[in-house]
Amino acid sequence: MEVIAIQKSILEGLTNELKTLLELTENTTKKYTPIFKEEKWLDNQEVCLMLGITKRSLQTYKDKGLLPYSKLKRKNYFKLSDVQALLRAGQPYNTNDNGSID
């Protein structure tokens, strides 16, 4: 085992920096936690499986405004309640193999 000795002031400085980083992380997490606790969010693959559609058809639904979504770091997320509402209403359009609406 290797033992490394550092000055107490350096250790305290590192400890303070880690505490500051932890506080920043907790504050950022608190900001977004209520959003995710209120609603279950699904990614593209989960929505495609639930609706029984292809990724291209899902893109058509998004383009036509049939299914609202949110984007976080280049990834799309859909509220479970929105997907369920679309299922209850019956999928408003059928899409053919190339994703265009029939």
Automatic annotation (TrEMBL):
Q: Name one GO molecular function term.
A: DNA binding
Q: Which Pfam families match?
A: HTH_17 (PF12728)
Q: Does the keyword DNA-binding apply?
A: yes
- Report the superkingdom from the record: Bacteria
Keyword Aminoacyl-tRNA synthetase carried by entry: no
Record protein name field:
DNA-binding protein
Helix-turn-helix domain segment(s): 41-89
Keywords in UniProt for this one? DNA-binding
